[in-house]
Write a structure and sequence with these properties.
Layout lengths: L2 H9 L7 H10 L9 H5 L4 E3 L2 E6 L5 H15 L12 H9 L3 E8 L2 E12 L6 E10 L8 H15 L2 E5 L8 H7 L16
Parallel strand pairs: 5-6
Antiparallel strand pairs: 1-2, 2-3, 3-4, 4-5
């Protein structure tokens, strides 16, 4: 018997179904197994580096800002997919976030969102350890200065380590120097990924 789901439904009898409540029911119903306790993720604190703030934020609080950043990222690095429409499923990001399976780190300058690193959290079926797989990692050109990018990655790594993550997997595009940057930070080139868009 799913006591969590029953308690949630009882507590919300007669309450209009909102997106937030629907996501909570989805998680409680076991559609997405909670992996990392969301309250542990909530404990990650911001860090100030010079005039920049690194923080863990909730996607559901900043969707409108993330849309703009996703568009900039898409335009700069995703030319190989420009025959497809950019159409992120923000509701799904939020569901994963609430289940402790997605974490979003941000970089802000004067309150303006200038970068993000979003990762999925999962347990490896091969090692049974917690792994983080990068979904998006992007900094606007003006944020790529004075070592901020390096410090931002270090912030993300320390936060993930505090959650028990043992392995981080990132993908880098061939259109920029991100691969070289990550190798300088101790990441190893362990595989090559290929992509093909299937035409109609």
């Amino acid at each position: 018997m799913n006591t969590q789901l029953i308690a949630l439904l009882k507590a919300n009898m007669g309450v209009p179904l909102t997106w937030d409540l629907a996501a909570d029911i989805y998680v409680a119903a076991g559609r997405i197994e909670t992996l990392v306790n969301p309250s542990n993720i909530e404990q990650i604190r911001p860090v100030i580096y010079e005039d920049t703030v690194f923080a863990r934020e909730r996607m559901e609080d900043i969707v409108h800002e993330m849309k703009l950043l996703h568009e900039a990222h898409w335009n700069e690095t995703e030319a190989h997919r420009h025959g497809l429409a950019l159409n992120p499923d923000y509701d799904m990001f939020i569901r994963y976030e609430r289940a402790g399976r997605y974490v979003l780190f941000t970089l802000r300058n004067d309150g303006r969102l200038q970068g993000n690193c979003a990762l999925y959290l999962d347990k490896s079926t091969h090692t049974q350890t917690l792994i983080a797989t990068e979904d998006t990692l992007y900094l606007l050109p003006e944020a790529r200065k004075r070592g901020a990018a390096r410090q931002f990655i270090e912030y993300c790594e320390n936060a993930l380590k505090s959650l028990g993550v043992k392995e981080i997997n990132v993908s880098v595009k061939t259109v920029n120097k991100a691969g070289r940057f990550f190798r300088m930070l101790g990441y190893r080139h362990v595989e090559n990924g290929l992509s093909k868009i299937l035409e109609d």
